[in-house]
Amino acid sequence: MDKFIVKGPTPLKGNIPISGSKNAALPLLAAALLADEPVVLENVPRLQDIYTFNNVLRVVGAQVQFQDSENRVIIDPSNVNYLEAPYDLVRKMRASFYMLGALVGKHGYAKVSMPGGCAWGPRPVDLHLKGLEAMGISISLDKGYVIAKAGTSVPGGRYRLEPSSVGATINLLLAAVLRAESFTIENAAKEPDVVQLCKVLNSMGANISGVGSDTLTIKQVRTLSGGSFRNDPDRIEVGTFMIASAMLPGSSLRLIGCNAEHLGDFPNLLRQTGTKVDLDGEVISVQAPEILKPVSITTDIYPGFPTDLQAQWATMLTQAHGNSTVTDTVYFDRFSYVPELSRLGAQMKLAKNTVHIQGPNLLEGASVMSTDLRASVSLVLAGMAAKNTSEILRVYHLDRGYESLEDKLNAVGAKLSRAQE
Ligand code: EPZ
């Protein structure tokens, strides 16, 4: 397994190109199975999760070509003939569960492994299954697999997601567009990843109304065409690098190829810490303040503070002059990074789904363990702030979600190298 060796403290200065969004690309890959012709996706990041999903598509019989030097994926779904997504792939990457909606939506049958948990705890799929049943799709469980069956047309109806769920919204959209006479999702997720999926499906010929709102109504169409679509930039990567620039004294970064509209109130929140943030079209400039002020946050569904930036923000707050709190209301137990940061000297105390932070902390390099994607990148941020050398173990978590991370950071002054554990 690989590890990162990080020397700190280092300011970051210069330009960082932003990659395509992993979480926005994955539902588009699944949506390609609904088309009658090839689908071309541009700006798809070269990430382990994308490679894994491409393999899931190949297992069911789709032809998938990843021209990864061009960040382009070409999917030809015309030969799909095996309507199952196996456990050994689904357990590796939860988003493979989107195969349930895509296969039953297109073919009227799907057998997909339940995804299981993840590094920070249970991640249920009950809303996915209840929503499909509400649509008129029959759902049964068989030895850890979900079996979904549907006739050429199911009545549809309506289903309210409680809580709102990105994955359930995506799966229900994938199942409904070709299969449900009329189906309404209430309290649907409004994340940019969902909006992009709706726009692409409608471009392929689907009939989805309410796009961008929390009520989506899908009217059945018989076929979807293929086409070429450009994937959104990764808003979580943008937020991560904005935080890096804010928390490393003397830093000044320009992030190239962003879509600031996807960041909600995040830029203003970061400005409250004293950080200078300029939005200029696709370029976001961020300059570290002399004194970083503590700003407490609570995560929420979009457009609230994204849970995928919670760990990074808490890491930044270890450098702020004063006390603060970070509360996650989306995932109550997404705090596996806290004991690791404490090994670097951070003063953090976890109470239920809130971490209390006393800053500023002079961090001292040490060996720390990655546990999940966003916790891992937070350890890299901490390593760049800490004195001396840190070792970050199990960086395969990072390779799932950050394209060329060490190249991007080293190009702006970081001292990051990869080695065998
Ligand atoms: C997506 O996961 C993202 N993953 C996550 O990003 C992100 O953290 C999450 O949305 C929230 O924004 C991808 O897009 C591949 P949810 P998802 O269903 O869809 C509960 C990353 O780091 N829930 O919106 O699985 C659930 O427990 C990853 O890139 C149910 O109770 O998230 C959670 O509390 C991590 N029952 C809340 O809803 C269900 O059936 C939101 O989860 C489904 C979800």
What's the layout of helices and strands?
Layout: E1 2-8, E2 13-17, H1 22-31, E3 39-42, H2 48-59, E4 63-67, E5 72-76, E6 84-85, H3 87-90, H4 98-107, E7 109-113, H5 126-135, E8 138-142, E9 145-149, E10 154-160, H6 166-176, E11 180-186, H7 192-203, E12 207-209, E13 215-219, E14 227-230, H8 235-247, E15 252-256, H9 266-271, E16 276-280, E17 283-287, E18 297-298, H10 310-317, E19 323-327, H11 337-343, E20 347-351, E21 354-358, E22 367-369, H12 373-385, E23 388-393, H13 396-399, H14 405-410, E24 415-420
Helix pairs in contact: 1-2, 1-7, 4-6, 5-6, 6-7, 8-10, 10-12
Bound molecules: ligand EPZ.
Alpha-beta content class: alpha/beta
Roughly how many Å is the radius of gyration?
A: 21 Å
The CATH topology of the largest domain = UDP-n-acetylglucosamine1-carboxyvinyl-transferase, Chain
Structural domains: how many: 2
Q: What is the CATH architecture annotation of the largest domain? A: Alpha-beta prism
Record the strand order, biggest sheet: 22-23-1-24
Question: Mean pLDDT, nearest integer?
Answer: 96
How much helix, percentage-wise, in residues?
25-40%
